[in-house]
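Structure first, sequence second, as always.
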């Protein structure tokens, strides 16, 4: 082989080597960029998930705070509801205008409770539920139906599933 041919071979070999090195460095750089992209994507997804959880938790807390404030306000008004019930029950000896006035006040209070989604419970004849009723006394009675409310001493109130006050009742066994 001539000197030129050997130089050409060497140049080709060196070019091939440099191209191989360039390809390897490009492959390494591509791998690094892909790895960086996947890490950035994972970070973005985690951040988005954390933000979504924060938003949901904040919404639950707002709802809870509103419910707690409403139940505290309603529990402060419940003695008024009890007094109106007592006044209406004892108004048999009073004039018709007195009865109508008490009924009007009671209806207005019921209307306000309805707007706040406050529901009364604990009526005579209801099945006794220890989660809703506070049994003050028990009465033995011969009947087909057992464990039912025979007397209501104080109505219970709830907002949705949250009990504001348990009903005080007498239970028939």
């Amino acid at each position: 082989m001539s000197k030129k041919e050997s130089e050409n071979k060497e140049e080709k070999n060196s070019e091939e080597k440099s191209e191989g090195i360039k390809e390897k460095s490009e492959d390494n750089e591509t791998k690094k960029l892909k790895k960086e992209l996947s890490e950035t994507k994972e970070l973005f997804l985690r951040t988005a998930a954390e933000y979504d959880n924060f938003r949901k938790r904040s919404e639950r807390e707002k709802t809870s705070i509103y419910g707690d404030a409403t139940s505290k306000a309603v529990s402060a008004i419940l003695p008024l509801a009890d007094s109106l019930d007592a006044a209406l029950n004892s108004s048999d000896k009073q004039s018709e205008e007195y009865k109508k006035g008490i009924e009007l006040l009671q209806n207005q209070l019921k209307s306000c409770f309805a707007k706040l989604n406050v529901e009364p419970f604990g009526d005579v004849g209801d099945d006794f539920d220890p989660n809703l009723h506070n049994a003050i006394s028990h009465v033995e009675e011969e009947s087909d139906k057992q464990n039912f409310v025979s007397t209501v001493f104080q109505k219970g109130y709830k907002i949705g599933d949250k009990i504001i006050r348990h009903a005080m009742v007498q239970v028939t066994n």
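Margin note: Residues 3-89 form the longest helix (87 residues).
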